[in-house]
Amino acid sequence: METTSVFCAKLLWKRAELTTRDMNCAQIYDAFTPLVIMGLEDYGFCRRGEGGPFTEGGRIELGGELPVLTSGGGLSEAYVHGFNLILEAVRQIRGTSTNQVPDCRATLVTGASGVATSALVLRGA
Predict the structure, then answer these.
(1) For 35, which DSSP code?
(2) 43 catalytic, yes or no?
(3) Is 79 in the active site?
(4) What is the C-alpha to C-alpha distance for residues 62 and 85, in angstroms, rounded to an integer?
(5) Is the dihedral of CA 3, 25, 51, 84 positive or negative?
(6) pLDDT digits (tens, 9 = 90+) for 80-90
(7) What is the pLDDT of residues 46-77, one digit of tens each?
(8) For residue 109, which of 34, 27, 15 has the smallest C-alpha distance?
(9) DSSP string, 60-100
(10) I need a surface site. Which of 12, 78, 91, 117 has the fewest CB within 10 A?
(11) Alpha-carbon distance 51 to 53, whole Å?
């Protein structure tokens, strides 16, 4: 299955002139738990079908390879249709998050996979 996020991701990475390897953390829209796994796959952090295993072993936790939803996201912090994800991305770049990723210089923020979507990359100086 390929969602609309795949097309969004291709355009995003091209315009941002960055790749998944440049992201210090990711705020992936999570109104439903499977959206995080789909987002990891759709935005190219792992291949299709590898999203579940990608999350194992602390890989997406604070201190892991790619901290995801560092403020808790929609399921654990608040559900404000993604605005809280943008706010957390700004906090990460500013260095003011309560779950700060050390030296965070770039973070991805996504809309939901599977529907018309959007995404942005925030990066600091």
Answers:
(1) H
(2) no
(3) yes
(4) 16
(5) negative
(6) 777 899 999 99
(7) 999 999 999 999 999 999 999 999 999 888 88
(8) 27
(9) TSTTSSS-B-TT-HHHHT--STTHHHHHHHHHHHHT--TTP
(10) 78
(11) 6
SS3 22: helix
Check residue 57 and report its DSSP letter: T
> Which residue is listed with tokens 């579940």?
52
Q: What is the pTM of this model?
A: 0.84
CA angle 76, 83, 6 (to 5 degrees): 90
**39, 5 in Cβ contact below 8 A?**
yes
The reported pLDDT for the residue numbered 116 is 65
Cβ pair 26, 110 in contact under 8 A: yes
Both tokens of residue 55? 């999350």
Which residues on neighbouring strands pair with residue 121, listed in sequence order? 108
Q: Which of 9, 24, 27, 29 is catalytic?
A: 29
